Amino acid sequence: MKPRFLLSGYYGFGNLGDEALLSVIVERLRHRHARCEIDVLSGDPDATARTYGVDATPRDDINAVRRAIAAADVVISGGGGLLQNATSLRSLVYYAGIIRMAVRAKKPAMIFAQSIGPLDFWGKVVVRQFCRGIARATVRDERSRMLLAPLVARTPVERTADPVFLFAAGEAPLDLASEGLDPSDPLVIVSVRRWRGADRTATAIAAAVDRLAEAHGARIAFLPLGGASDAEASTVVIRRCRSNPVLLPNYSLAQAAQVIACSRLVVGMRLHALIIAARLGVPFAALPYDPKVSALLEELRYPLEPLFVPGGQVPSSAEIESRIDAVWLRQVELAAHLRAVVPDIEQRAERNFDVLDELLTNGDENQQA
Q1: Which of 58, 84, 317, 342 is most deeply packed, by most CB within 10 A?
Q2: 155 and 182: one domain?
Q3: Is residue 334 assigned to a domain?
Q4: Sheet holding 284-286, edge to edge
Q5: Residue 325, domain member (yes or no)
Q6: In a domain, 170, yes or no
Q7: Are residues 233 and 141 in the same domain?
Q8: CATH number of the domain residue 250 falls in
Q9: Domains held by the chain: number
């Protein structure tokens, strides 16, 4: 069998978290189906095709998208946080619209390893109407399962885990010394993004950074996983620090993972910075800007409360310092916890591909009317 897969996600925009998803999905599909063909709906088709050795279709060319759906054996929506309208209703309509086109073309379609929501009233209406007829669905946390299941009542919805729990960093060349980082210093990686309440959030993160540097002798480096916008958000924080953190360049995905692997601690908003840290057994302090980050903490049964919630009530400087001291003192305990729980989550991440294989095996029998 030589299946052709079409992948729909936030691909081709330089976000390393989403590129990690794509990297793992492509690798696992080829591992399981050596002769498969893969097409990716991408914001930068040439770069996507060159990086992953796949076919790539411009995601905003509706006629090209229709042709890609017609040529596919299975349409995969995900992974990521696609079915939500916190970003915009337009974004939700786009991703759900791909699913609707696939179903109307009588192609087996799967919601794959997604976080679902937030969804307001109209968001739920869009998902209920556009995703009717989806063949299978996997989601990466229990909150998402409970939200999606009633909206696609005739479709099995299974809780799995994020495919990035299967990501292998590789050994891309990395020279941290050229960035002013001494390998003998305890390294802390900070991963931030733009979010509401940016002014208060930036001041609070700067206080945490200064505490790590001044009380614990850590060397702080900001890692922009989301490209230029993350670098800008990082710069806003750096300018408020008394200490001297550095801003790392736009590393490749493999290099970014290696930087995290070299660190003692990660302070992070970005979901996939925390997932890669967890996979590598690196303790972290979370800044859950979105329910998907809170859901990750629940899935990991992580025994440390978030540093604070961006956009919400910001703790006092004294409370932030106390929480930073706690995570620093508990590094060994937290690392041991991650090593204990991650293997089970890795198995659930692999389950996404089992479900996809079941869909392939059953073919059109799974397609809802």
Answers
A1: 84
A2: no
A3: no
A4: 246-247, 219-222, 187-191, 265-268, 284-286
A5: yes
A6: no
A7: no
A8: 3.40.50.2000
A9: 2
| Token pair for 248 | 């790392």
Distances (CA, A) of 232 to 15, 131, 191, 203, 237: 14, 36, 12, 15, 9
* CA pair distance 349, 352, nearest whole angstrom: 6
Range list of β-strands (E), the chain? 4-8, 37-42, 55-58, 74-80, 109-114, 136-139, 157-159, 187-191, 219-222, 246-247, 265-268, 284-286
Same domain, 216 and 259: yes
Q: Using the CB atoms, write b or e for 276-312: b if 16+ within 10 Å.
A: bbbbbebbbbbbbbbbbbbbbbebbebebebbbbbee
Give the C-alpha distances (Å, rounded to integers) separating 45 from 40, 56, 75, 86.
8, 5, 17, 26
The answer to whether 193 touches 270, Cβ cutoff 8 Å, is yes
307-342 pLDDT tens trace = 999 988 888 989 999 999 999 999 999 999 999 999
Q: Residues 154, 21: one domain?
A: yes
Residue with tokens 């006629």: 63
Let me know whether 190 and 155 are in one domain.
no
| Integer Rg of the chain from CA | 21
- Give the range of the structural domain holding residue 259, as residue numbers without chain letter: 176-329
CB proximity list for 365: less than 8 A, separation 6 or greater: none
Q: Is 183 exposed, middle or buried (0-12, 13-18, 19+ CB in 10 A)?
A: exposed
Q: Give yes or no: residues 199 and 79 share one domain.
A: no
pLDDT at residue 207 is higher than 80: yes
Residue 14 maps to a domain: yes
Q: What is the pLDDT of residues 274-311, one digit of tens each?
A: 999 999 999 999 999 999 999 999 999 999 999 999 98
Tokens of 85: 């309208």
Determine the length of the chain.
369
